[in-house]
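note to self: the first set is below, dont mix up w the second
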Amino acid sequence: MSHPYRYLCRYSYIGWEYKLNLRMGLEDDNWRLTAYVNNVLDDRSLAGSFRFRDLRRFAFFDQTTFNFTFPYAQLVNLNRGRNFGVNISYSY
């Protein structure tokens, strides 16, 4: 096969991410109060993807070429969902 895209199946496409983080706070001389919301839109698109040969599984033996081949596996990482919280700090 001499087509330039013959190895395209080895790559994974990851689409756009839509992230919106909000942070608001109050501050005085000795204290600070901050409220935050991360990933306001609750975007759970793929953060990463990796395709690899899984050597932990059984190998396939091809009797015509006398080669062992290992199956492919896909590792996928998802983005964290929406989270929120409050930070309070005091200095003396």
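second set (the one i keep forgetting abt)
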Amino acid sequence: MGSVTPTPASPPDSQRRRAALLNRLSRVEGQVRGIARMIEDERYCIDVLTQLQAVRAALARVESEMLNDHLHHCIEGAIVGGDADDQRRKAAELIELLRRAAK
């Protein structure tokens, strides 16, 4: 079985992913503004809490996509590049990120 060398994302792919993430974040921003208005208008607590959960879920999707991109581009690039120091640095960054998330 041969090894497959991953290729970096083409600029159009990268631009599409970035645009999609920015679009999602813009929607989250709108949701947060809507929640602020709900609180100002003294809306029912459960309605506000439901919207807060939706924002957290949307941010979790953005985070998941960013992590996926990091793994497929930065981490794979370090592995394929063969630079042991870069590989250790990328692994340490990822471990630290996961450690902070676990708190």
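remember for set 2: Residues 12-102 form a domain with the Methane Monooxygenase Hydroxylase; Chain G, domain 1 fold (CATH 1.20.58.1000).
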